[in-house]
Design goal:
By secondary structure, this protein is α/β, with parallel strands linked by helices. The radius of gyration is 26 Å and the shape is globular.
């Protein structure tokens, strides 16, 4: 890159180059073309932060371009004291008080088993700002049943006949019984499938046994797991199954963190957790909230951090308004209106980050899981959907490869500045307002610069970016269908992709994750070996060429990713031993089968199968990293890597160790290539 770019002239509202954060100064092209725009977006975040802190009743920042302790305290007050402890159903001195934000409703009522679901029994009063409030007194003699912990309830909303803000509620002015947005615990009726909020238990009563592990760990080795499929049985797994059956495996392999998928309540199981219906509630099909707390506590007892995947880019769509966040045909208070509020690929609703109450709910979700369940961090799902109004739909990676960062900071970038501000607020909350600070990861595909720069340094604030291009590389270049088994591998292209990273970012790298295993795709081992996995994995017989090649490349792809590309490493449950086929949750299309919705642990536990050898290699990788600590040193750059295509060799040094890979399928190497 050109290191001779002239500094940006100082002028009102424009910072001098010397005033820019280091990550911008290190890239003169970025500073020259986009520095003022990056600063403007940061100042917008600062203004939003000060506004939210003032709304929350606590003083905001100090007006400078860095978040003060006061602003962090104010942000927590905004989403916890004025969010979690204000909205929803809470106990007070005389009974149960309920609050719901529904700005376009003409009337609201609290309904449930306690009043026979009668919308006239406990009407809500509009108390300002679109907030509706009701009180169910303890001495109310009209109650049909006590309103107590575990009782079912919902909120009934009646729309404006003329539409109102964002359109009227479904039913043309009639009542719609909806899920409260701030429900902390839910229950689905096994017969009718109706989902109701439950009067929440006190989550503060859990007897925690173990202190949280130190963070960040010396090496971040993440085990990504979907609770429902983590069992070998053909049924939905539970938090307790993961605690008793899988945690010992994860610890023995050498992982240092657990990443929970499908964490938030989602009515449709086959969505894999991505059609969230109640963002604040843990998924009830996996067990009660106390079992999630017990899982996290047990993981901490084994020295494992616990991260949760937060689905905060979109929410489940409901045609009736009876499940998910309150919504109607035109949108709803939490979603963008019209077509802009619908994701055409996922069929879900997209949040309107410009609205204060949307920010409050989403930020409160992060705080709630961190404080009530002691999660140690989160991965933001679909961060690109948050950051761009075009949602990256139909755009190839080449779209983001312009010479002067036009796709990120130019007039046509189509960045959702409300979404960007939310991301920065979420990371400020995680790093400064919550104790202990949370570790944060972004699933972001565009390569947005500054994603992992701190918020006080004008960045988005994440600790790690998911290295999403690497699985595509391995799936494309290693699959049997791509080229003949004896074809040479593109060594230079592999080196290019594995070292493709901004100097200011840390990458959570992986050869494959859940995305590659879901139905419509295949696990890498199955791409490599295909049907040979069914009858060719016996360790007692010579392997077929497909199995020999597949087992070798399964190991090579993982170690190369781990050693060359990773600042942290991730593996999806079961893929460490080459779990065959794919993941397919039960639906009507497959006869509600669990055949592909489980993990066949017996394959890894049988020493007579090559699956056990792959498992042993995974354990050996982590033992080597624990000894050498290469994740604690910067990954090599492309110039540090010797990539010899004719010799089919890749060599580099990291953490004082030499890594030498021979990618020839037909012969060993007598010496390491030297340049």
């Amino acid at each position: 890159r050109d290191q001779s770019a002239a500094p940006i002239p100082s002028s009102p509202g424009v910072a001098a180059l010397s005033d820019y954060p280091d990550w911008i100064v290190a890239d003169p092209l970025l500073a020259d073309s986009s520095g003022p725009e990056i600063r403007r977006r940061h100042l917008r975040f600062r203004e939003a932060l000060d506004s939210l802190c003032a709304e929350g009743g606590v003083g905001g920042g100090d007006g400078q371009c860095h978040p003060s302790e006061g602003s962090a305290e104010g942000l927590r007050h905004f989403c916890v004291e004025r969010g979690l402890r204000h909205f929803g159903l809470h106990r007070d001195a005389v009974g149960w008080r309920f609050r719901e934000w529904a700005p376009s409703a003409a009337a609201a009522s609290l309904v449930g088993d306690f009043n026979g679901w009668d919308v006239t029994a406990h009407p809500c009063e509009e108390v300002g700002g679109g907030v509706w409030e009701a009180l169910v007194r303890d001495d109310d003699t009209t109650l049909l049943a006590p309103l107590r912990v575990g009782a079912r309830f919902k909120v009934a909303l009646r729309g404006l006949a003329g539409g109102g803000e964002g359109g009227g509620w479904e039913g043309g002015g009639g009542w719609v019984v909806s899920m409260p947005a701030w429900a902390l615990e839910v229950q689905q009726d096994p017969s009718s499938y109706e989902v109701c909020a439950l009067v929440p238990r006190s989550l503060g009563g859990f007897a925690w046994q173990h202190a949280r592990p130190s963070r960040p760990p010396g090496s971040l080795r993440v085990y990504e797991v979907h609770v429902g499929i983590a069992t070998a049985r053909e049924e939905v797994g539970r938090w307790s199954d993961l605690r008793t059956d899988l945690l010992p495996r994860i610890e023995k392999l050498g992982y240092t963190a657990l990443l929970l998928l499908g964490l938030q309540e989602h009515g449709y199981y086959a969505s894999f957790g991505y059609q969230v219906t109640s963002p604040l509630a843990p998924a009830e099909r996996f067990g009660p909230p106390s079992e999630l707390q017990a899982l996290v506590d047990a993981a901490h007892g084994r020295g494992l951090l616990v991260l949760g995947e937060m689905v905060l880019a979109h929410s489940a769509s409901s045609s009736t308004g009876r499940e998910g966040l309150p919504q109607h045909a035109g949108g709803g208070p939490y979603f963008l209106p019209g077509e802009a509020g619908h994701h055409p690929g996922w069929g879900s609703r997209l949040f309107d980050y410009s609205r204060t109450e949307v920010l409050r709910l989403l930020l409160a979700t992060i705080a709630h899981f961190a404080e009530a369940y002691r999660l140690d961090g989160f991965r933001l799902d679909a961060a690109s959907t948050v950051l761009y109004r075009h949602r990256c739909l139909g755009l190839s990676p080449a779209h983001f490869c312009g010479a002067r960062y036009e796709a990120f900071f130019g007039a046509s970038s189509d960045v959702d500045e409300g979404g960007l501000t939310f991301v920065m607020l979420a990371n400020l909350l995680a790093k400064r307002a919550l104790q202990p600070p949370l570790l944060t990861v972004a699933e972001e595909s565009s390569g947005y610069p500054g994603l992992c720069a701190p918020t006080h340094a004008w960045g988005a604030g994440f600790d790690y970016r998911m290295a999403m291009g690497i699985p595509d590389l391995w799936g494309r270049e290693l699959a049997l269908a791509h080229a003949p088994a004896d074809a040479p591998l593109p060594v230079c292209e592999i080196a290019d992709e594995l070292t493709r990273a901004r100097c200011d970012e840390r990458r959570l790298a992986y050869a494959e994750c859940h995305d590659q295993s879901l139905v419509g795709d295949q696990a890498l081992a199955f791409r490599l070996m295909g049907a040979a996995m069914y009858d060719g994995m016996s360790a007692g017989a010579p392997p077929s060429p497909a199995v020999a090649r597949g087992v070798a490349l399964h190991k090579v792809s993982r170690l190369l990713t781990y050693a060359l590309a990773a600042d942290a490493y991730l593996n999806f449950v079961g893929n460490e031993f080459g779990h065959p086929e794919w993941v397919e949750l039960p639906t009507g299309d497959n006869g509600h089968s669990f055949h592909h919705a489980r993990r066949r642990w017996f394959l890894a536990d049988d020493p007579g199968l090559r699956y056990a050898q792959l498992l042993a290699f995974d354990r050996a990788m982590h033992a080597a990293e624990a000894s050498l600590r290469w994740l604690s040193s910067p990954p090599p750059t492309r110039g540090d890597v010797c990539a010899d295509h004719p010799a089919q060799q890749l060599c580099f040094c990291r953490a004082g160790a030499l890594f030498a890979f021979n990618l020839r399928h037909d012969s060993s190497a007598d010496a390491v290539t030297r340049e």
